[in-house]
Amino acid sequence: MPNILKIIKLSKPLHGVILSMSFLIVFGVFLDLLTPFVSKFIIDEIVLKIQGEVADTDKIILLIIFGFVLSLTKNALDAYSSRKGDHLAGELEKFLTNKFYYQILTLPQTYFDSELSGKIINQLGRGIKSIKNFFNTATNFIIPSILQSIFIIITLAYYSVPIALLTAGIFPIYLYLTSISARRWGKEEEKKNKIEDITRGRIQEVITNIKVVKSFTNELPESNFVSEKIKKINTIYAKQSKNYHLIDFARNSGVTFLMIAIYSIIFYMTFEGRFSIGVMVLIIQLLDQARRPLYAMSYILTQVQTAEAGSKEFIEILDLPQGEELKSKSSYKNVTNPQLTFENVSFHYKDSEDVLKTISAKLGPDEKVALVGHSGAGKSTLVNLILRFYEPQNGEMKLNGESYNELDQQFIRNNVALVFQENELFSTTIKENVAYGIKATDEEVIKALKQANAWDFVEKLPKKLNAEVGERGVKLSGGQKQRIQIARAILKNAPILILDEATSNLDSKSEEAVQDALEYLMKDKLVIIIAHRFSTIQNVDKIIVLHKGKIADMGTPGELARKDGVYSELLQYQIEGNKKLLKKYELY
Hints:
There is one protein chain. The chain is built from 19 helices and ten strands. The chain has helices spanning 2-10, 15-50, 57-106, 109-113, 117-159, 161-208, 210-215, 219-271, 277-310, 312-319, 379-386, 409-414, 430-434, 442-451, 455-458, 478-492, 508-521, 557-561, 566-584, and strands spanning 340-348, 354-363, 368-372, 394-399, 402-403, 416-419, 496-500, 526-530, 542-547, 550-555. The N and C termini lie far apart (78 Å). 30% of the residues are buried.
């Protein structure tokens, strides 16, 4: 049980609750074992009366009252233990979810590049569920069963060593057969989990890209894909069920045979007068109690294997080295007059060639810099390095002369505001999207919206700032979503601004509104712009031209437009394209 032991070790804050639960369990087992003794003493008195001897009526009444109180106490204890168990399960779920989510948030970007979001969510859900189920099983079955079995065998040994040994002998045989079943179940469970991760990941992707699915009329193939995966899961489950029930039949048959032998011995010894009727009833009741933990073992070991398999990926993720350390935002301050320096920076993704090769450049305070180049030239990768989503394999990056290696990722990102090409909004309100990660009043949010040319449409919405934008801002137009992002960047007011093709998906009218908002946003900042539309970068101070991962050229828009190179080539393509359009409509 390595994974389960790790969870127990990890859950140190809950050890106090677990210990108190253990005490309640021990006390409950003790009360369970008292009941057969009460029955024995009552029967002994009744037998004396039947045999014509003097029986103590007061003793019988007291025993009945004691048995009643014992039952009430046990019921109250069971109710309290169950409540404590629910509390433990809830606290455990909260603790493990927080632990997992915190770990996910600290992992480097490289982890998310190769994992499906749906798969990660499924691993979290499955891990939490399997661990919770195990702890519920542990508190309700495992610990009580083990203690009950030990106490019963000790008590049986007091009356008859042979009966105690025969009873004790049932456990290793039963557990051995159960362990075989549980191991087989666990192996198949891991196969099921892998298929389930793929299935859940695909469902998440399909829902996220539902417009693509519908536009390509690919609903049936997607449905069939999931159906086939579920069919495989059910095939594995059928195999698990078959193995389980075959072994279950064998072990239960063996237990039945041994129990018949034990009962035969009890009846014989009672017939011979070596056991009183009371002792016989006591031993039968104890054996009946022994059967319950015995039969529970199959469920317990299956739960153990399910928890081991279900928490496997959960534990693997928790064991991954953290890529970042999370700190309070209040511990970071904005830099002044930011300057970024690249010194022979090279970078490649996992299992790929260099995307950036010996990049050297200096971006100064209040400078407006554009990154230009063909698709795949390395523009977005350079931005990812600036944000320290990735680490360069060679070379060094500096912020105001201080090496990136000496700076926290969060410190760097706290000094950068972004406006993405994609409309990265959350399915919440306008206000919460604009003030994401920032404490701001309604007045401050409205001011930012006005500066972003967004308040004109926001104030027309029924709920204004509290209007829900839908998943990824689906209820807003492209231009509206972009202006919400710009308002967010204005409110953050970071000294470095990155515009990742912020107007590439907009129509001309929307682009004009967004461009006006960007002009305000770019004031007094180091601005880095990725743009394919050269109309958006005509007023920048510097253009860095990237070609095949290298800096092919650098200069002002005017300088690069007048010399041969990648920039003038790309510029010419756009000019020719515009000319063709104008000629088509006889406007040129």
